[in-house]
Automatic annotation (TrEMBL):
Keywords: Amino-acid biosynthesis, Cytoplasm, Glutamine amidotransferase, Histidine biosynthesis, Hydrolase, Lyase. Pathway: Amino-acid biosynthesis; L-histidine biosynthesis; L-histidine from 5-phospho-alpha-D-ribose 1-diphosphate: step 5/9. It is found in: Cytoplasm. It comes from Streptomyces globosus. This is Imidazole glycerol phosphate synthase subunit HisH. One of its GO terms (molecular function) is imidazoleglycerol-phosphate synthase activity. The lineage of its organism: Bacteria, Bacillati, Actinomycetota, Actinomycetes, Kitasatosporales. Residues 12-211 form the Glutamine amidotransferase domain. SUPFAM superfamilies: Class I glutamine amidotransferase-like (SSF52317).
Amino acid sequence: MSAARPTKTVAVLDYGFGNVRSAERALARVGADVEITRDYDKAMDADGLLVPGVGAFSACMQGLKSVRGDWIIGRRLSGGRPVMGICVGMQILFERGIEHGVETEGLDEWPGTVGPLRAPVVPHMGWNTVEAPADSRAFAGLDADARFYFVHSYAAHDWSLEVTNPAIRAPKVTWATHGERFVAAVENGALWATQFHPEKSGDAGAQLLTNWIETL
């Protein structure tokens, strides 16, 4: 009889701009040992770090820096330690965000700008399907018509990161459409992110979080 796999620990970064309790419950549901924290060492030591985000890009960046979240994310990724961003927690991973004409520097993990979503109805609020790569690990076990819950008025409209070194695995980018096509999720080595809220996406979101936990 094989030994049981150890429970994976996940730190949910509490910097004042995320649905931390919803994230905690969703992660616990899929078997993770979860702690909501803004403590540097606890966030660094966990198997996985989840970075939620709700509100304005600029306010989220200020809140993140107030708890040294920018350092935590950068240090974890430099060591290949898993990080997952959700909603604005994904948007701040890009180079910059523009809201109401105000430009704010992001974490610059990926090139590109997050800007207003050009659609007849904004915010994009509700359930939507996504276009995931066939070999996506994040969406493994999910049907093509699986639906996820979105709440946002801004998005990354383009993906410009090019990988020319054949030894480096190219990121997998998932798209969705609401008025226009936008980046819905990214798998980039140790860094995963979703524009939608997996913690509010029922069984489909639980499967995605399970897939992430299995990479830790």
